[in-house]
UniProtKB/TrEMBL annotation:
Species classification: Eukaryota, Metazoa, Chordata, Craniata, Vertebrata
Organism field: Galemys pyrenaicus (Iberian desman)
Keywords, in A-Z order: Cell projection, Cytoplasm, Cytoskeleton
The protein's name in its UniProt record: Centrosomal protein kizuna
Keyword RNA-binding: no
Main location: cytoplasm
């Protein structure tokens, strides 16, 4: 046998080179296809259709945010309305009580003046005799 030298490279079979050529051609074809697809994607991203769809998605999300905000505001306003109605009922109750107190005050004053008049008449009526 012949000793293998460090500088000598074993020759590959013709099948190896044929297979290597097919793999390299497949790699070139795949790279070309990838570049074509990348170009189409770029063109699509720049197209009006993509921009319109993107704007649609943004507007739809904004509409959902506004809708949620409106629902929360409606619930909050309903709570405010309930609180206002409760306060209004209390104010109405206080108004009724104030009117009753005013009538009681007038009645009390009338009774007081009537009694005072009776006392004065009795006192001065008796002192004149």
């Amino acid at each position: 046998m012949r000793p293998a030298s460090a500088t000598s490279v074993p020759l590959a079979s013709p099948d190896f080179y044929e297979r290597l050529g097919r793999l390299q051609q497949g790699l070139r074809d795949s790279e070309k296809k990838r570049l074509d697809l990348e170009k189409k994607l770029y063109e699509y991203n720049q197209s009006d259709i993509y921009r319109i769809k993107l704007k649609y998605v943004k507007l739809k999300k904004y509409l959902e945010e506004i809708s949620d905000s409106e629902k929360k505001a409606h619930i909050r306003n309903q709570e405010y309305l309930k609180q206002f109605e409760r306060i209004q009922a209390h104010v109405g109750h206080f108004t009724i009580n104030t009117e009753k107190l005013q009538k009681l005050k007038v009645t009390s004053c009338f009774v007081l003046f009537k009694n005072l008049f009776v006392v004065v008449v009795v006192k001065f009526g008796n002192s004149g005799q």
